[in-house]
Design goal:
The protein is an alpha/beta fold. The protein has 20 helices and 12 strands. The chain has helices at residues 2-6, 13-45, 50-99, 102-107, 110-132, 134-152, 154-201, 203-208, 212-238, 240-265, 270-311, 373-378, 403-409, 424-428, 437-446, 450-454, 473-485, 503-516, 552-558, 560-576, and strands at 332-339, 350-357, 362-367, 388-393, 396-397, 410-414, 422-423, 463-464, 491-495, 521-525, 537-542, 545-550. Strands 6-9-10-3-11-12 form a 6-stranded mixed β-sheet. A 4-stranded antiparallel β-sheet has the order 2-1-4-5, with no helix packed on it. A two-stranded antiparallel ribbon has the order 7-8. β9 (491-495), α18 and β10 (521-525) form a beta-alpha-beta unit. The radius of gyration is 35 Å and the shape is elongated.
Length: 577
Amino acid sequence: MVRTLAKSIREYKLPSLLAPLFVTLEVVMEVLLPFLMATLIDDGVNKNDMEYILKTGLILAGVAFAALVFGALSGKFAAKASAGFAKNLRHDLFYKIQDYSFSNIDKFSSSSLITRLTTDITNIQNAYQMIIRVAVRAPFMMIFAMIMSFNVNVELSFIFVAFIPFIALALGLVIKFAHPIFSRVFKTYDKLNNIVQENLHGIRVVKSFVREDHEVEKFGKISGLVYKDFSKAEKIVAFNMPVMQLSIYGCILVIAWIASHQIVGGSMTTGELVSMMTYVFQILMSLMFLSMIMVMVALSKASGDRVAEVLTEEIDLRDNDKALKSVKDGSIVFDNVSFSYAKDMNKLCLSGIDLKINSGETVGVIGGTGSSKSSLVQLIPRLYDTTQGTVYVGGEDVRDYDLEVIRDSVAMVLQKNVLFSGTIKENLRWGKADATDEEIKRVCRLAQADDFIERMPDKYDTYSEQGGTNVSGGQRQRLCIARALLKKPKILILDDSTSAVDTKTDKLIRKAFLEEIPDTTKIIIAQRISSVQDADKIIIMDKGRINAVGTHEELLESNRIYQEVYYSQQKGSENDD
């Protein structure tokens, strides 16, 4: 985990080294202060030597100022290093997710990935800053102060050494019991984020069904679990502070009692007592800081494991060394294809698919819910790899293509396609970054989107809210079709993407496809037979298999499933009239 995360430090290695360097110099200055103070008291104040007092006082002020400067520099470089490390970590995590296949993304929920990109990385950033600063300061302070204290009085120095095993035991118990709770609480955070994400995404549904109380209750339960776990963990961690305070003040009391006898007996000076008390305080405070670091590391380790899990996830879709850089045409062949999301031949959602589609053909796909229509077409742009068999596009195995090339040659429009925040023009240029205004207007006319865009206040410069919530479902689908057409794809897949438009507009869109992009292979998944009846061939999907392939007339004459769907829709249409 540490090696994986450390790769993200990169250009912040220098600040990461300078921070502990200046911390060390700061510690040296701070350790010198009690020694100088002791000499000032014993050789200056007690002997009433003003010249020595002034001289030593100036040295004290200089050392104190140096400690201040070194401390400020260490803080500056630690902040720069930790913030830069977090920035790189977010970059690496986000870029890694962009390279994920659908099956990789399926392994992690979107809410979990968001938590890892935000809360987990913040925890790692805080821990890293403590490690390169406080984790260096504490042990060096303890070592240097211990050396100086033994130099002052060996007998008294052994007193606080006796307290160290007690502190170490208490710290070990805190970490042992707190770490599992921190690991669990971040998984609960994932669930909390998922509930918030679902609620905001489906807020219209929540309000239309008056389910606000239910959502509030659901959120309250998961929020309560987060509170319960964090409270339990914080109670365990809070136990660390009274143990440290007990050790510090107990040690000071014992040293003060013994030292007072030594001063009376003449074996110890007042200055030595003052310096000794300061060194004891520095040592025990260093131990307290170390305990805080260990708690922070325990917290951040859970976050580090979660982030490293995403970074080390093996991407199952990769280009081969000699990937093809062009697609000849839009022909498609499925050769004995079977597919399972779980990559388990006993859990197939597609089985024994044999299919040939010529370039430029219009193919309709119909079938009941769960018949794996969408799974079938997702294999064409290699969003998933087949579990068995081969998919060919343009005469070549899709696995032999460069991923960017094959996906750029296939445009998919989903039923629930997404518009991003930005103007309509910016959203459409996802299909072609350098598209001219005329090209944009042309594809919008083909998708029957030009009319409603022209009626908008700012036309093509109208701002689209996140998810396209300020346009209707039918308008959003038409904009997504226009965006796909702008790619000038060899294969166009419409996955139930005209479900929200009326039959007249649907017909106009299909007519435009036929006239304007005759060389593009068009696959139309639909529930309405009217959307596919003019296709060159229609595929009937049933329970993950191809039930039949034929034209509208052939299937209407020979296929029971097609007949049932057709006559039920005809009857529904007559009832509507």
